[in-house]
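We include the entry.

. . .
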Amino acid sequence: MVDTHQESPSSHRNPLVSFLLIVAFVLAGMFIGNFAALFAIMPFYDFSLEATMSFLGSPLSDPDGRVPLLIVQAMASFFAFVLAPLLYIRMYEKGDLTNYTKGPEPMSSAVMLSVLMAFTFMFVNAPIIEWNINIQFPKFFEDFARPQEELLQRITEYLTDFDNTGQFLLATLIIAILPGIGEELLFRGLIQNKFNKIFKNIHVAIWASALLFGIFHMQFYGMFPRMLLGVLFGYLYWWSGSLLLAVIAHAFNNGFTLLMVFMYQQGATDFDIEGTEEISWSAIAFSTLAFALLSHQFFKRIKHQPLNG
């Protein structure tokens, strides 16, 4: 079994304490990131603190606020999910990123299989997405979750209503690549490994960290398909020993969706990936079979190969 535990051999800290430290670092990163974002977007509002705060309070009211809002998201993501985990690793794990990116040879085959698995899983996940959208929560929770979901959905649609290729490329960097790196470093690289030590069962650790990943996004009508994506990324990491494969699969999942949205807006395709048109069950069945075969190949060809170095 490939061991993806990345802690320093001399570390004997209680894993629950380590998990709480990670949470503290992330919360501090969120606070600092939001504070830094405030100053980063002030030039868009003539360095007026009042105008900047007004925008942050109601970002959808500004028709030209797409780029500033992307900058806010980028700053928050970078500080909370990239910088905070890296600082934690530096201060408490006594390691660096090379401990998380060692992977099997040939890496090209592992990357190709990871991308194909992420692609086919989009179709496998489609019925779960449809079910989760229409799920009925208790009324007290609906009153909280539904408005939150609708607001986040409007923000997503606003950020992905591209006026030009430059906005699409900026969104790809901020919505696909940056979360792919930061969220995988946090949820798989750190939290999954800590949960593995806490529960002493890698499968429980993968599912628990994936559940936390789903809850974290605060979109409860998309929580379960997002959790299943987290499970996929978790097993890619566990089977290969390389966090890089989870990062690539995550970034591909987000980036491919953005690409399809952009192509639909440009009239390059008739398929609206954000539309309500259901995917046929034959396509879902075919994709499920393809995903199963690809997973078998990954497990057979990648998992049992030694790590680099």
Observations:
- The chain has a mean pLDDT of 89.
- The radius of gyration is 20 Å.
